[in-house]
Amino acid sequence: MAPRVGAWFIGARGSLATTATVGLFALARGAAAPTGLTTANDEFADVPLVALDDIVVGGHDIYEVPLAAKAASLAAGGMFSDALVEAVRADLDRTDDDLRLIDLSGPTQQDHIDRMAADIADFRDRHGLSTVVVVDVSSTEPLPADHPAFHSEEALRDALADPTQRVLPASAVAAAAAIQAGAALAAFTPSTSLNLPVLRARAEAAGIAFAGQDGKTGETLLRTVLAPMFTARNLKVRSWAGTNLLGGGDGATLADPEAVRSKLVSKNRGLHSLVGDDVVAPLHIDNVPDLGDVKTAWDHISAVGFLGSRVTLQTTWSAYDSTLAAPLVLDLVRVLALASAAGQSGAIAELGCFFKDPWGSDTHAFADQTAAYVAWVQRTGVLVRLAEEVSAG
Amino acid sequence: MAPRVGAWFIGARGSLATTATVGLFALARGAAAPTGLTTANDEFADVPLVALDDIVVGGHDIYEVPLAAKAASLAAGGMFSDALVEAVRADLDRTDDDLRLIDLSGPTQQDHIDRMAADIADFRDRHGLSTVVVVDVSSTEPLPADHPAFHSEEALRDALADPTQRVLPASAVAAAAAIQAGAALAAFTPSTSLNLPVLRARAEAAGIAFAGQDGKTGETLLRTVLAPMFTARNLKVRSWAGTNLLGGGDGATLADPEAVRSKLVSKNRGLHSLVGDDVVAPLHIDNVPDLGDVKTAWDHISAVGFLGSRVTLQTTWSAYDSTLAAPLVLDLVRVLALASAAGQSGAIAELGCFFKDPWGSDTHAFADQTAAYVAWVQRTGVLVRLAEEVSAG
Amino acid sequence: MAPRVGAWFIGARGSLATTATVGLFALARGAAAPTGLTTANDEFADVPLVALDDIVVGGHDIYEVPLAAKAASLAAGGMFSDALVEAVRADLDRTDDDLRLIDLSGPTQQDHIDRMAADIADFRDRHGLSTVVVVDVSSTEPLPADHPAFHSEEALRDALADPTQRVLPASAVAAAAAIQAGAALAAFTPSTSLNLPVLRARAEAAGIAFAGQDGKTGETLLRTVLAPMFTARNLKVRSWAGTNLLGGGDGATLADPEAVRSKLVSKNRGLHSLVGDDVVAPLHIDNVPDLGDVKTAWDHISAVGFLGSRVTLQTTWSAYDSTLAAPLVLDLVRVLALASAAGQSGAIAELGCFFKDPWGSDTHAFADQTAAYVAWVQRTGVLVRLAEEVSAG
Amino acid sequence: MAPRVGAWFIGARGSLATTATVGLFALARGAAAPTGLTTANDEFADVPLVALDDIVVGGHDIYEVPLAAKAASLAAGGMFSDALVEAVRADLDRTDDDLRLIDLSGPTQQDHIDRMAADIADFRDRHGLSTVVVVDVSSTEPLPADHPAFHSEEALRDALADPTQRVLPASAVAAAAAIQAGAALAAFTPSTSLNLPVLRARAEAAGIAFAGQDGKTGETLLRTVLAPMFTARNLKVRSWAGTNLLGGGDGATLADPEAVRSKLVSKNRGLHSLVGDDVVAPLHIDNVPDLGDVKTAWDHISAVGFLGSRVTLQTTWSAYDSTLAAPLVLDLVRVLALASAAGQSGAIAELGCFFKDPWGSDTHAFADQTAAYVAWVQRTGVLVRLAEEVSAG
């Protein structure tokens, strides 16, 4: 029997996780085509990725809305059809039983971590899962001020045990829980998570595979596709201005200047890495409620070419952010499960194509990232097959 | 003393060749930066490419306007500054002496080919050039009807010797002359040229290096950069509509439905190769005189993503086509001279990044083409250096 | 009791008529707001327009698909919600009884006209309607070759009575029927209709009110809004290029070069009238099936300003054409009924704001048209009220 | 002999005033066509506007760069040609003699006002001008905090006489000087100027004609052209997002958040007036130095139409802001001189078409403003002619 894999979402009842969950069940039931899943591309046909109907969904959230109700509200906004929700309603209802409220009743942050880690371990045991991949898809949080506990295991332990302190932001609590539960981890938001040196060290010591950070879905994807064209042709980019319009929950979250700061920093990092630090790159995110979950992004790129001539490019990208991101979340579950099966640990740098700010890599050019990703998946797939054959021996 | 290389332009007094010539002299004199030249990128710093001030310009044209006058008219249209024309006026005037009218006074097409080949050989001898690279940058010509002489060396010889026949279109006459003169050849237009099997065979038999076809400068470049993004992310492109607006000489030429046909076919070939033959791809080229030599291209791309959601991308690209193309023409002179120095012959498939319709390759994805190009130039450079050392040794 | 008015659609089962019919019933039942209806604007609050629930729908078509089925297919394409169709399903089913197949079984075209006129008269009698307004919303037809019968009543009578001739195109047959039935007429397409001098004379002799031609809904509306800005500011427009992408039935119809010719001529007439005949104005309509009924139009406008400086404007308009047009169709029914009540006949020039090619007017500037329209409706409303009071007196 | 008129620019050596001055002389000498001047439109052919070669230029500035040098730097940026600067160099050099440094050496602000008023009066006397029109085209200044002296003539007098206070911002000092000199006044920036009630009262008491505020040249012009289209068609605008990119001096000034605040408020006022206060309208101005004086503005408009369907419009406007504004500055000189000749005083509400935030009017729809403007100029022209005839009689 094929090993089953768990997908554990932090923010499991949010737009993104719900879209991923609806899509997973729709694909498993044959009610939708795997469009948008990179792991469904032909080049991976021979890779022993977990089958979609062998993925079990669980997760944490701070809200209690039933998945089917959340899915229905997304359908009302045009994300997918009502019929699709109906087709997977039973799966969603069953999955509600595997979702847990984040329990902050314990006096210390260590208690919170213990509770979350226990939830994950219990999920693994109940379903007999070979691997659990935790994917953080919760809302972007503000950057925390620096703290000694971020840099020392001992200071961290003391702080976590101190009922008067709440030193870790939510994304780091979740990451600590994943490490403690021995789960693989993907950070799909620009929040703190494993950016804390102390947690990065824990993750490496625990031998888990992890990947991040901040899903590269729309405008930033486009930028890391286009920027290498200018450099290959030796055209000097002088400015790259961008405006993002979106409504929905993300629009409201990102209207908060503090929350948006980490997002903007993350969005521009790849751009500067590709076309230079002196490129003028104003960037805005505006909350425009009537646009709902469709994000519209306008970029204006100005470059200098041969003999000082001007080259101008404008792009307008328009898409549901959640349906761009959801298949990537499923991809990450599959490939981190593959990495785990191959015994890999630490930051998987070859997954950089999924992220605005890739851990373990400073390559941002999307074509280069894609080539590295494809080669790694194929290579890792061969290793896993070999190991299976040896073990089946 | 470093070997000098000849750049022989078919259409030497046109906008593109004039821009390339002005730019070459401006670079050689330090009056402009090599922006837009791929061969000026850092990764080629160690490759023994011919120095820009070791390139001598000659060529054929059917017009007699002095280069400096043509350059002044381009400057008036904003392509580059009057000051730049002044800075290289003496070079342009001197170059006029190396340009030849295409002489069609002979009774047969073989006479025309002989005359052109003699012009090229004379140019090489007078300047003591190690290599001449012929670059066809003349106006796009209509596709000729098929003819037996296109497929048989014997039939071709008979036709060329028959004073009542004019079987070859102008681009093929020029290509035959380049072959006869032993020059390398780059086809920067979508005209017939070495697409005739009989001429392709001649070129291969003659051992010349050649590359083509149809310079990939603006909209098509952008398309072959963007299309792989959609496939990498498993987004299904359904339609890719395009409209090109331009004035200038190209605008007028391409307003001719017959001439534009070969252009449109060439432009869409890469797109269909990358995103599938069933993509709906209407494409227009409109002559809009007031826009002058600035080409503005609008593309509208519609794709389907996860769970049937819609992804839409619009791009508006605006640039002087000639200043995009001119540095590539200089690049082709340098890299075909390098290939010749390395003893390579036949279609150089690794130069596909320069062309809409690459000879010897069916790779259209620009990032893949770029990687192949960079590796080939570096590799060939090493071979040339080794050969030089052996020969010096 | 308020007088009831009939809306008789030529093409009653097409996308536009179906959308107008669904919308009319939705508004009458309070299931939708009157967004998009100009007659619902505040400035008309005191005008005695027919109430929406006093409009009865009938019409001709060559297809037999039930209205509710057609409405459901439009809802599937996203035009409006399934719930809206359900809300008015009973109304649609009842309306099916008032729709007639176009009967071409008679031997002569006069027989066809008689049959259609009888259908309209019967509809008026059965429902006790004070007025019937015929609105031609059928597919665009090719321009017919000129014919003597187009210019002489006598020649027309002979031709219509001759069983070997089919001299009138379908839109003119419908117009002749409307005239014969004494109905008011609005021509919402660019087809022949009352452009034939002989029919125009008949319409005037019959004393019917009529208005046309070719609904101004999207790109052309935008153009007649923008062009006066350039002239008011004395900016010289040099080129105005346009590309329209659409799928659905209209996309397929307009992919026919013959059918599109009348459309393109009609679209550009207003533009040239506003900014001059020497403006370069290439215009394309492309059939892009995956876009469905959403029309996307890109315009690129280039103008010269002070001291020869360049002004460039690009617009991208995206909307369901049918939902732009449908409320205008309802407006036309209401205001032509008002005109009839006021005893007006002939071309109502003040309705030019509805049309690309306004009958009786050469004003294309939308603001001027709007001012004339508003004043005319208010003035005519006062006349009708006065007449009612006198008659009630 | 025709009366001559003075144009007195506050900020006379800035980009806008220099462009207007170069253009005025180029037009007077027949070296350029009057494109962009509304007063050159045919409908004003019979109006006794001052001839362009009867306008004398003077002004204040805080800089001392010679006009010809400033003009040359604008030509280098592409605003107009070097040849044009040469054609008017003698005029520019002569005009330098009529420009005055703003003299702040006096101990009180009343001294500064006296000095500036004396400069203006001296200019009028030296040149024998019938009228002087002061046009404030200086940089946008931050909004001042409110002050009692803004509301009481007595408090203002005390404050101006107090050497320890600098209660008026620079634009108000200039306005006070214009009033004191009996000059007409146009406020082309969003700075304080006659917005102070106490100065407005002074201007009215002095009987000068004045008009403002904040030139409507690009994006805002477009918005007040487009917004009435949506309301005429009863389409409900939900959001109108805008991004402006520009370099040059204006880009740097507007990068200052304080300075930009008055600009943004002014830009959005008309929009909200036209489409409602609840429209979501994020608006950004970014300093992008490499774009120089070309302003590029992208707007994204989302509206709801019939049956809840979506209408989306994007516009990209690109133009030299100074060449859009400069002809309007010349227009204002001509029409305020006309108003003065007709004995009109106070806010000339019919000049609202020139301004983002029109004094004396709450009409923002550009077509309505244009109609009022044209009628007023024609009417005023008739009055001036009549007066001339009476006086000549």
UniProtKB/TrEMBL annotation, chains A, B, C, D:
Q: Where does the Myo-inositol-1-phosphate synthase GAPDH-like domain start and stop, copy by copy? A: 218-322
Classify the source by domain of life. Answer: Bacteria
Q: Which Pfam families match?
A: Inos-1-P_synth, NAD_binding_5
Q: Which GO terms describe its biological process?
A: inositol biosynthetic process; phospholipid biosynthetic process
Which molecular function GO terms apply here? inositol-3-phosphate synthase activity
Q: What is this protein called?
A: Myo-inositol-1-phosphate synthase
Q: Which PANTHER family match?
A: MYO-INOSITOL-1 PHOSPHATE SYNTHASE (PTHR11510)
Q: Give the organism the record lists.
A: Microbacterium hatanonis
State the InterPro entries in the record: Myo-inos-1-P_Synthase, Myo-inos-1-P_Synthase_GAPDH, NAD(P)-bd_dom_sf
Family stated for the protein in its record: Belongs to the myo-inositol 1-phosphate synthase family.
